[in-house]
Task: structure prediction
Amino acid sequence: MASLTLEEEEPEEGSIVSKTFSIIRPFLQPGTKTTLESTARSILEILPESDSRSSDIKMFAQACIEIAEQIPYHHPSLIKLVDLLEDITPSPKFQFKQPQMQHNGRYIRHQDLKESLTDLFTGPDEGRPGAYISFHAFSAQLDERRIVSRTDPSWAIFTHRDAFEGRRHFDKREGDEEAYVLVAAQYILWDGHSLFRQILVLRQGDFDIDASDLRAWTPGPLYRGKPYLTVDRWHFWRDGYRAVAAEKKEERYSQECRDVATKAANLMEALEKSLTF
Result:
């Protein structure tokens, strides 16, 4: 497997971003002898002690996103990057205690990473089409491991609404249709098990969804069901993937996109069959 070219957008010698790239770059190379343990130790050594809201922690989070966007969504090194973040998560450096929760001792993990992901959630970039897909493959894997303390299905709903429900977060540009499908599929391929578990819980009525979430999850015009995750919505998305997979016009969807759509649809069917009792 070819080596990865991971470059800083704006190099600044001695900065946390530069140090992060220098430490993580060799760890992510195929066939590396650099271990997870040594990389995690080196990262923790460059970050300030027990100050999860420092600017250095935020810069580290942004560097990780910048690295993730340069790794192809299907490359094993993206998994390794998430492995690294999971390994360092227990450190007090990444635990933020919310002021309003001082009485019960609850902490939020990787708050700066969560905020940076939210700030950078944009539409496809014409100059870097692969970065948009890799960004969401990274986000979906963080969700699956609960690294950023985000357990809601919002981004899975947003991206599938973009792909199949006829409502877009961002202005549609020519060629974006395939990108939206590939992005949505990341949440099925990497976090589908968790998403379907949420459907099972919601189906029993065991939930208290905030009204603002329900508004945010409002379906697009092509889907007329309830705004939260349901089996019907799951089926609608699955059928959307099936339609992409069956599309014969190469100018609309590439073979890669059709193959990924097939994987997503097959996994959705397998999860439903295996987890429905």
Notes: The mean pLDDT is 88. The radius of gyration is 19 Å.
